[in-house]
Design goal:
- The chain is of the alpha/beta class.
- It has eight helices and eight strands; from the N terminus they run αβαβααβαβαββαβαβ.
- Helix content is 40%, strand content 14%.
- The longest helix is centred in the C-terminal third of the chain and has 17 residues.
Length: 207
């Protein structure tokens, strides 16, 4: 549970960040997000699937992937999705200096140009978070599907969504090769289940 739904204590470590977006009373809203793209092996399939269901999502993009596949970035924008910065090289904040970390974000920003930022692995130093918040809206998550896990079956990934989804949940999937098997099964079924249970889908505002 610590991974799938970050506990309150962990959320309190980063009060600058957005973990959940609660709507009106009695509302049910979900925010689908995709990390680590864009890549030609997965992102087009995700975009086509979202189109099929009429769902808009938010993509947190690795700058180096945007550099290599600019046409996929343009396609994300063309199809009406929102997008954010996921650093240039997917650096984990605890493993690099704050100066290196901030430079990597700035490098990605030159290609992506979004006020949304999600830290890779959801991990960063306090000092990094305080510096980032002056320039970006830090977007964390309320529910991690764990589609990237080789230890989980596709059915277990779907079960994570069913167990932890709630109004305002920012839900994480990945348009990555590592997550492909689980994501391609669980994501469409999660959309169907959420719809059946009264959820509507929104994107995270970029301003």
């Amino acid at each position: 549970m610590f991974i799938e739904r970050p506990p309150l204590l962990y959320r309190l470590l980063f009060p600058e960040a957005v973990w959940r977006v609660k709507g009106r009373r009695n509302s049910k809203v979900a925010y689908l997000t995709f990390d680590d793209g864009p890549i030609p092996e997965e992102t087009p399939w995700v975009l086509d699937t979202l189109d099929r269901y009429g769902v808009k999502a938010t993509f947190f993009l690795v700058g180096d992937n945007v550099r290599r596949y600019p046409e996929l970035f343009e396609e994300i924008k063309r199809r009406g999705h929102s997008y954010g910065n996921h650093s240039m090289h997917h650096l984990q904040g605890m493993k690099v200096t704050t100066r290196r970390y901030l430079y990597d974000i700035t490098e990605a920003d030159r290609l992506i140009g979004s006020q949304l930022y999600r830290p890779p692995h959801g991990i960063m130093r306090w000092k990094q978070a305080k510096a980032i918040k002056d320039h970006y809206n830090i977007i964390m998550y309320d529910l991690v599907s764990r589609d990237y896990s080789r230890k989980l079956t596709p059915e277990q990934v779907l079960a994570n969504v069913k167990r932890y989804a709630r109004d305002g949940s920012i839900i994480v999937f990945h348009d990555s090769i590592k997550a492909s098997r689980n994501m391609r099964y669980a994501m469409p079924k999660a959309i169907e289940w959420l719809r059946e249970n009264g959820y509507e889908f929104r994107t995270l505002p970029m301003e």
